[in-house]
Design brief:
38% helix; 9 helices; five-stranded mixed beta sheet; alpha/beta; 2 domains; D-Maltodextrin-Binding Protein, domain 2; single chain
């Protein structure tokens, strides 16, 4: 089982391990977790069959679907919805109030392969060239800490992480439109006859059951369950990144 490393690999292992163990028990097959250091590596591992099932960002899934015929199985529900938002954050004492104010300031992003981050900035009315400098720090935690440490004036992270850092002084100045949550997908190397069992196991996770709630909260504190994934879920993300794929 692969995963896009939105956090450092050690954190991703800690987050993913309860789900991996649960799925192994439900499917009756051992599952080994194979975290990737960056999005491009996760997609390549998935495409080459080094991983057969993966936890992917919406953009990583769209690329894997186009290149390798990936099949979306289920989407996590974030606070009951199959969507999440990405936040642009500054320190609490920053004079920056809105996205346009960031022109001439420094900015931290996550994975360089994440087209959606650049798309969110552009739709919000600012381009990378308008920053005094910018850098890709790969993981959400790295971005949040870099802003708090004054290494950068602002950065972009997933909304659910903001609560962890708000008490330390982060402030949101802009939200993305709702986007599909991360997805559990399989590739052609995954046994087709096991897809229904995988889907049933994911959809069967119930936040009302403590053992299930622990699995969901380990993956993301905002997750409350899973829902059947369809291609329509990914249309907003596809539309957002389309100008960057030409």
């Amino acid at each position: 089982m692969g995963t896009v490393a939105t956090d450092i690999p050690a954190v991703m292992v800690r987050r993913m391990d309860p789900l991996t163990q649960y799925l192994a028990a439900e499917l009756g097959s051992p599952i080994q977790l194979r975290p990737s250091p960056q999005m491009s590596a996760a997609i390549e591992d998935f495409g080459k069959g080094l991983t057969q099932v993966a936890y992917l960002t919406p953009v990583a899934y769209l690329e894997a679907r186009e290149r390798f015929g990936a099949i979306a199985v289920a989407l996590p529900l974030s606070d009951g919805k199959p969507t999440f938002r990405i936040a642009i954050v500054v320190r609490g004492d920053s004079p920056v109030k809105k996205l346009a104010d960031l022109a001439g300031h420094s900015f931290a992003l996550g994975d360089e392969k994440s087209l959606i981050q650049r798309a969110i900035l552009k739709v919000g009315g600012i381009k990378l060239e308008q920053f005094s400098r910018f850098a890709y720090l790969r993981h959400n935690d790295n971005v949040a800490k870099a802003v708090l440490n004054r290494d950068f004036d602002a950065g972009i992270i997933k909304e659910s992480l903001v609560a962890d850092y708000a008490a330390q002084g982060l402030r949101i100045i802009h939200f993305s439109p709702p986007l599909p949550t991360y997805v559990i997908a399989v590739n052609r190397a995954f046994p087709a006859e096991k897809i229904p069992a995988l889907r049933e196991a994911l959809l069967g996770l119930d936040a009302g059951i403590k053992a299930h709630r622990d699995i969901l909260m380990a993956l993301d504190p905002a997750y409350t369950g899973f829902v059947l994934a369809t291609n329509r879920h990914f249309e907003p993300a596809q539309k957002l990144i389309a100008p960057f794929q030409k």
